[in-house]
Q: What sequence folds into this?
């Protein structure tokens, strides 16, 4: 009598990919480091690194340091973004919603047609989106009003060769000198520019297209901007933000943690512990919000703005 063979399902295939994917990624990283170190030994590349040390000069009058409002904005952006990623993943993967929400059709937002019933997870995701966008508008206004934009907007073409130089320095594990209190390196500058002025707007315009707030009967507008395109943009942008957060936190903690945390949380250029303790408090708040974002706590809040049902 033959022994029945086990069928390999999707879970087995995913595990196999993970088993092979992790070692393959590590080998690829080692090869990148070895290649970067070899390139740095070439005379032409060595000369390139001298000509382009990794940072561009800031415009005259560029501010030095970080104001207090930027520290608050940094925390709020991180707070909202963390929960947006969590709820976005829930919206994408939840098959049995914990509840539904229908907007109260009165007050400032009043429509002729009845409001659309959405899941409680989607309601929370959209509410966080609105708060994040509002915070982003305040951030943009203050950024340009105080001149801080000069620190994250490219103002010279040499930012690109300097960014390549910084990338090569990172890849070779001989990292560029960090002095974020005065000036970011060119790769940081381009990354922050991409995050603030490209990724964030893309998240907004793709998210609102897939939301219930988008006009369903605007045929010409829907044809020009199909929902399939918005969905094809929205998820990769979320992946970008996850990758950005991981790399950002890693570099903050590995390039002078105390000084970097003081920059972002204590608004100072010292090496004291104040920024670290404020950072710990902010992490505790984020962790608490992560675990409190449950239906038992969300339903009373959602009921203030609409009808909550099963």
A:
């Amino acid at each position: 009598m033959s022994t029945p063979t086990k069928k390999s399902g999707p879970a087995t295939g995913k595990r196999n990919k993970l088993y092979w994917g992790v070692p393959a990624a590590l080998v690829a990283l080692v090869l990148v480091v070895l290649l970067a170190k070899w390139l740095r030994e070439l005379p032409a590349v060595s000369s390139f690194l001298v000509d382009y040390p990794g940072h561009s000069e800031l415009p005259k009058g560029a501010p030095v340091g970080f104001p207090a409002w930027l520290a608050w904005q940094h925390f709020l952006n991180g707070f909202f973004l963390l929960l947006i990623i969590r709820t976005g993943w829930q919206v994408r993967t939840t098959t049995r919603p914990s509840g539904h929400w229908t907007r109260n059709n009165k007050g400032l937002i009043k429509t002729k047609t009845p409001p659309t019933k959405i899941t409680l997870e989607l309601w929370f995701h959209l509410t966080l989106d609105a708060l994040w966008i509002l915070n982003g508008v305040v951030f943009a206004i203050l950024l340009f009003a105080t001149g801080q934009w000069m620190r994250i907007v490219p103002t010279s073409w040499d930012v690109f060769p300097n960014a390549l130089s910084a990338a090569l320095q990172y890849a070779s594990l001989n990292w560029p000198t960090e002095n974020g209190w005065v000036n970011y390196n060119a790769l940081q500058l381009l990354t922050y520019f991409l995050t603030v002025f490209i990724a964030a707007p893309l998240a907004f315009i793709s998210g609102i297209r897939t939301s219930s707030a988008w006009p369903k009967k605007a045929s010409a507008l829907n044809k020009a901007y199909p929902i399939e395109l918005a969905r094809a943009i929205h998820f990769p942008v979320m992946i970008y933000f996850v990758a950005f957060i991981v790399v950002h936190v890693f570099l903050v903690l590995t390039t002078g943690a105390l000084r970097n945390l003081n920059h972002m949380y204590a608004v100072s250029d010292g090496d004291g512990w104040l920024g670290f303790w404020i950072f710990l408090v902010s992490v505790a708040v984020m962790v608490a919000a992560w675990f409190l974002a449950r239906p038992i706590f969300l339903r009373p809040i959602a009921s203030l703005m609409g009808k909550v049902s099963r």
Summary: The radius of gyration is 24 Å. The mean pLDDT is 88.
